[in-house]
Amino acid sequence: MDLPVDEWKSYVFQKWSLLPKSIQDTISTADALRDIFLHSSSLLQPEDEIFLNNLSRGYFVGKDPNAPPFYREEGNKKFQKKDYVGATVLYSKGISHSRPHTVDISLCYANRSAALFYLDQYEMCLKDITRAQMHGYPERLQPKVMLRKTECLVTLGRLQEAGQTIRDLESNFAAKPTLAAAQFQILQRNLCRLKRKVQEKGNLTETYTATLTKTFEDMDLREENEQISSASSSVSLCIDPLKGRYLIATKDILPGELLVKEDAFVSVLNPGEMPPGLHHGLENKWDTRVTNGDLYCHRCLKHTLATVPCDGCSYAKYCSNECMQQAWDLYHQIECSLGGLLLTLGIFCHIALRSTLLARFEDASKVIRKLCSEISNKDMCSPESENLVQILNYDLGEEGERHGKTVKIPVPGCDINGKYENNYNAVFNLLAHTENHSPEYKFLCALSVSALCRQLEAADSKKPETAAPPALYSELNIWGVAMLKHMLQLQCNAQAITTIQETALSGSKENNVSNSRQIRLATGIFPVVSLLNHSCSPNTSVSFISTVATIRASQQIGKGQEILHCYGPHYSRMGVADRQQKLRSQYFFDCGCPACQKEKHRAVARPRWEAFCCNQCGELLQGGDVLSCGSMSCTESVSRDHLTSQLQDLQQQVGIAQELLRSGKLEQAVQLLLECRHDAESFLSAEHSMVGEIEDALAQTYAALGDWQKSATHLQKSLRVVEVRHGPSSVEVGHELFKLAQLFFNGFAIPEALNTVERAEKVLMVHYGPCNDEIQELQKMKSCLLNSPPIPLGPSL
Ligand SMILES: [Zn+2]
Ligand SMILES: [Zn+2]
Ligand SMILES: [Zn+2]
Ligand SMILES: [Zn+2]
């Protein structure tokens, strides 16, 4: 996803392997990015471009006028089956393929408004009705949508508007002889009903305008840092020849304190599973599968069921017209015609392009001049550590007495006043690690960027009135070098933007505990977040709302301690050898964090979530290839290979059970899971992660069967395993507690529910702060529990 598609990757690697040794050497030993780029670029042949363009064509991102009727038909099928979410997404796909101001687009919007209506999304429904009308919704169908509009307005308590819509309907249609008698009657009946509804509502004293607005008050940094934008005054920027730039605490920090709140400088949505239809002309050219690209705004990453597509392509979709317009002005007018190519070349290449497009808006001439001078200057591209050598041991911008004179030392990425900001200058100064990447990788990046530059040039010559500043185009090579630098930076500096996606299981809606999982929504660059160093047991927690990253202390951090976050390899998810390997190959450093030191030097026993136990006495087994019982009185011993294969068999059975659960075969799932658990007890420790997985699946199955008590019992066992593995105040425990709270809530176990809600809230608050969806849900549950009579209530109030 981040890198180009495999076909292009292997094509380029093949090309590299066939290059004469002398040329390989030239590229391998060049330490200036400019040389790498120019050499590689000169090797890009027309046949390479043809190959790449053929791959790009596999992604159909244009508008296909035959697609909207197909998607509308498919959407109607879902609608009939009362799968309104499914229907909404298919109508959206139809909309994305329609040209503006066509009957197709207006019909799709109108149908989507109906699906949204049944999902109780009245505001969105109203917007879609307006859109349908704007794009020329047929006159004869108008009464239908206007009745729907009135229903929405009544439900939302906007009674005056509702009354007006009824009057419009009456004057425009009711009297029209064009309506068939039967239609006329239906309309009349509906009008009467709605008028009554308006009256009834009008009599109620209650107001319906109180919509839940999210409180963002606690979301702001208590005191913004003067030295680093987007950071709190509790941290300070330091620099050191070994560590590079890093942040330390300037005072004691409590768990949950917000330390960084930064909007991405650039982000690109991860399209999710979107296999190219490489074989043209296949019938399933119109994909009905749902991807992230269908559910999240391509600019602000908000979740939405009612996307608005770009007028020029079927790929880019947004949450609103505002986002569409902003994306167009900032970057999409250049990217729109390159959709297939960008999907082929991968997210890193896309981010590289978008970063340079965004740079245009920051005093473009200055940035470009800077690019020209820095890139033509070889020093800039030599190993970045040289920059650091000059400034070793100096604090940021500190004016100190050295050799009898005052010196002011700049930190890379800061402006002349020593301020570090979320801007292109900071992005440009992130380390590219040019000397650490393999020559093949550099060649792949350089060739991909060259191909992109050629396309930009071609697109530019087609339309002379381009919006890009001429300076960028006239110096296409400089632009290319800048993009290459970004591509190389991304391996170490790309930040995955994640979100929690709730997947409901089959079965009735109320009967389920939602199963949440973290998904990677987008990739972005956050210059301030990038200042943090890695630890396998970090003292912070990162989360995202839209494109904004927040970093909170996950534990107490003493004054002077370094602020650390985890780049991915966390000690509770990966063994020390795998972590070290991952960090070395991707980030080019050897981790010396406390967790790594402890595990490396003391050869600690395998963690309990991986431990086997004796099937004679239940004690933990110990040893290497042959394990023996830890109990003095027991002589049992067994080979690790045997246990490993036993575990694999079990894993397979659990997989089958989970599949049964997904397809709604609940009794069979319970049966198999109970057998699995029995099997697990014979050789796995009670805290083994596999045991946790089985308990979690059992909890879900019983929940789906409506047996709250059994479900809760199993979920509590799963919770214990998660606690042992991730720690009692970890975000993972927070999610388990959230599930458990939902269970007790749905089962009307009020004291248990209240207790669990509070525990979940406490844990999740530290990691996410008050604006998180789960926190909000918990608070709704709590207020409901505190002043509710014991009557059945659904989880989504
Ligand atoms: Zn948006
Ligand atoms: Zn477009
Ligand atoms: Zn480590
Ligand atoms: Zn034993």
UniProtKB/TrEMBL annotation:
One of its GO terms (biological process) is heart development. One of its GO terms (cellular component) is cytoplasm. Keywords: Cytoplasm, Metal-binding, Methyltransferase, Nucleus, S-adenosyl-L-methionine, Transferase, Zinc, Zinc-finger. Residues 297-336 form the MYND-type domain. Residues 233-568 form the SET domain. InterPro entries: SET-MYND_domain_protein (IPR052097), SET_dom (IPR001214), SET_dom_sf (IPR046341), SMYD4_SET (IPR044421), TPR-like_helical_dom_sf (IPR011990), Znf_MYND (IPR002893). It catalyses: L-lysyl-[protein] + S-adenosyl-L-methionine = N(6)-methyl-L-lysyl-[protein] + S-adenosyl-L-homocysteine + H(+). Pfam families: SET (PF00856), zf-MYND (PF01753). It is found in: Cytoplasm; Nucleus. It comes from the Eukaryota. Its main location: cytoplasm. SUPFAM superfamilies: HIT/MYND zinc finger-like, SET domain, TPR-like. GO terms for molecular function: histone deacetylase binding; methyltransferase activity; zinc ion binding. Protein-lysine N-methyltransferase. Monomethylates PRMT5, modulating its transcriptional activity. May also act as a histone methyltransferase. Plays a critical role in cardiac development. Acts as a key epigenetic regulator of gene expression during cardiac development via its dual activities as a methyltransferase and negative regulator of HDAC1. This is Protein-lysine N-methyltransferase SMYD4.
